[in-house]
């Protein structure tokens, strides 16, 4: 029976282990499309799974990796045929379904999106779940009515994957972007992506007031906790914050004041189980509204065997922008 290279996570006496190994094709899970994986990426959630820092993985053994781009090898799904170029993000890959850090994946055809015209498979993974989540956040702000004319928008965790793409896309669309980061050394990088202002995250880490001075019309937050509470208290009347991450924690030490006194909205963003039509819309917008030059500037490429090492780095806040993983 054929085998292929994969990053396999196993239970250990204490915690879990993650290592590059040969995986038996016969152990692939059920699905109606088999894909030759060409590129993957490294997200914060991947770092949690690889290091075992959080109970992301729900079955063992597990192939890590929540995103892939590649070419269909075989399909019994009516929408896909051998040779099709596809992207898959979320749906529990790397958590409950064998994931993307492998030369082969078997998934449900309903999970797949056609690789948008003009994007290479590498580009798609330079975007990945982080960029896809950023675009879902932008679409939510637009739907709420937050436009460049509404006023400044804030992006937290701006030097990370979600933040970098959100900053680049929002600036491309004409927004005045205020980028929040804990790494002062990344100011020039963020300005190169289009940030008009860069602020220290400490401005958003103090105990939040019920209402503070109005500073922005909207924002994209990947941090959560006290940071999100401060964002809400500083949002202008009728504005909105798209919440898509929890790097600082799952708690929200806020009050109802921003909601009932300023009409502020908190927009929840889920990229894992997002329905297929919004997925298609987001990927089409990413193909048109993300400057490919900027995408290249925020991307670092690594090999499959480097994934465990870089998983630890992303949790330590040592990763800038996006990481693409070359599978074949």
UniProtKB/TrEMBL annotation:
Domain of life from the UniProt record: Bacteria
Molecular function terms from GO: acryloyl-CoA reductase (NADPH) activity
UniProt protein name: Oxidoreductase
Enoyl reductase (ER) domain span: 15-325
Gene3D superfamilies hit by this protein: Medium-chain alcohol dehydrogenases, catalytic domain, NAD(P)-binding Rossmann-like Domain
InterPro entries reported in the protein's UniProt record: Acrylyl-CoA_reductase_AcuI (IPR014188), ADH-like_C (IPR013149), ADH-like_N (IPR013154), ER (IPR020843), GroES-like_sf (IPR011032), NAD(P)-bd_dom_sf (IPR036291), Zn-ADH-like_protein (IPR051397)
């Amino acid at each position: 029976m054929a085998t292929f290279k994969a990053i396999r996570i196993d239970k250990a006496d204490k915690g879990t282990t993650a290592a590059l190994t040969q995986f038996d094709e016969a152990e692939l899970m059920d699905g109606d499309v088999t894909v030759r994986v060409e590129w993957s990426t490294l997200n914060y959630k991947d770092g949690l799974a690889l290091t075992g820092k959080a109970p992301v993985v729900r079955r063992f053994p597990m192939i890590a990796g929540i995103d892939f781009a590649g070419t269909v090898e075989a399909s019994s799904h009516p929408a896909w045929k051998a040779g099709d170029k596809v992207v898959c993000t979320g749906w529990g890959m790397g958590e409950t379904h064998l994931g993307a850090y492998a030369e082969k994946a078997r998934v449900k055809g309903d999970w797949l999106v056609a690789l948008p015209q003009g994007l290479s498979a590498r580009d798609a993974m330079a975007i990945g779940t982080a960029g896809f989540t950023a675009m879902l956040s932008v679409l939510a702000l637009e739907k709420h009515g937050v436009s460049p004319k509404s006023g400044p928008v804030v992006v937290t965790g701006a030097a990370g994957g979600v933040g970098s793409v959100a900053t680049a896309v929002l600036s491309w669309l004409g927004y005045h972007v205020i980028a929040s980061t804990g790494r002062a050394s990344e100011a020039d990088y963020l300005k190169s992506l289009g940030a008009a202002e860069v602020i220290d995250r400490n401005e958003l880490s103090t105990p939040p007031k019920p209402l503070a001075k109005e500073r922005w019309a909207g924002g994209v937050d990947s941090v959560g906790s006290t940071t999100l509470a401060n964002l809400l208290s500083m949002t202008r009347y009728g504005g909105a914050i798209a919440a898509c991450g929890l790097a600082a924690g799952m708690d929200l030490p806020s009050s109802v004041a921003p909601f009932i006194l300023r009409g502020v909205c908190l927009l929840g963003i889920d990229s894992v189980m997002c329905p297929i039509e919004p997925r298609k819309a987001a990927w089409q917008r990413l193909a048109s509204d993300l400057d490919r030059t900027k995408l290249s500037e925020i991307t670092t490429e690594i090999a499959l065997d480097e994934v465990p090492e870089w998983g630890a780095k992303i949790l330590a806040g040592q990763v800038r922008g996006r990481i693409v993983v070359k599978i074949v």
